[in-house]
Amino acid sequence: MNLKLKIIIASSLGLLATIFPQKISQSQTQETIIRREEIFVGVREDSYWFGSRNDKGEREGYCIDIAYALRERLSANQLEPIRVRFVTSTVQSRWDMVKSGMVDLECGPNTISTEREEKYGVNFSAPFFVTATQVLAKRGREEQDVNAGNAIVGVVKNTSNESDLKSAYPEEQIENKFLTRQQGISALVDGEVNGFASDGTLLLGLAWSMNLDMEKDYTFVTINQEDGRPFCAGYGFILPGGEENSSWQRYINDFLAHDRKAKRIRQKWLLEGISENSQRLYDACSQES
């Protein structure tokens, strides 16, 4: 990782620590978790680095490790340790899982926006990662077509990526029938679409897991706004909405800002060995507009 990126990350963590001081009152959600001695965490199974299954079928990723670190913090000074119960979430189900109380939080590549908070009745935590919308395409003619805006590009429906794509592409060139990123990338491989749009970091993880040759056969095309900047996405936990749940939001933000283990987990999964593509997106999205 280059020095510039390290400075950006250190600055963002320092700002987070300033905004969310260490001593905060106990939240209602926290009390509920302690009383039942269990925390329910929604986690995706299709998001490489964040939440997926390994070759043994075991869950792994940032969200798994961070849930166990949060359990340790919640268990401090308790007679019995808090247990973690993982519940599989999807792009479609994540909002209702949190709003209905099925889970206490959902961890994954969730793009933070006030519009989403209002629409789904949830809160977001402070951001723990940043990336941007890109299109995965085959090198050569299809890459050129995507760059020129003359391609059919797939995307998962009702995602921030779809909104970004609609800002840059005619609607008739957007294919939003896909329910998962893997479906969309498979359609790209089979020639059903000329490109597939999603967050660049997630596209890279899936491309690796599907053994796509990024050096010879595939590449990324960044979709830019009118001012030339990427459509950036800051990721946050999805938390129960409403002012009555704001104390739980503050507790989570304090955990992300101050907990040493939380910082180490972020470093391990999301910052160490970051790809050149992810680093370029991080740098571009961290610059002042």
Plain-language structure description:
With 289 residues, this protein is α/β, with parallel strands linked by helices. It folds into 2 domains: 3-128 and 236-286, 3-Layer(aba) Sandwich (D-Maltodextrin-Binding Protein, domain 2), CATH 3.40.190; 130-222, D-Maltodextrin-Binding Protein, domain 2. 43% of the residues lie in helices and 21% in strands.
Strand proportion: 15-25%
Q: What is CATH's topology name of the largest domain?
A: D-Maltodextrin-Binding Protein, domain 2
The strand count comes to 14
Q: How would you name the CATH homologous superfamily of the largest domain?
A: Periplasmic binding protein-like II
Q: What is the string of helix and strand elements?
A: HHEEEEHEHEHEEHEHEHEHEEEHHH
Helix-and-strand structural type: alpha/beta
Residue windows where pLDDT falls under 50 for at least 5 positions? 1-10, 17-24
Count helical runs. Answer: 12
Indicate the CATH architecture of the largest domain: 3-Layer(aba) Sandwich
Our Rg estimate from Cα atoms comes to: 19 Å
Largest sheet: 6 strands, mixed
CATH class of the largest domain: Alpha Beta
How far is it from the N-terminal to the C-terminal residue, by CA? Answer: 23 Å
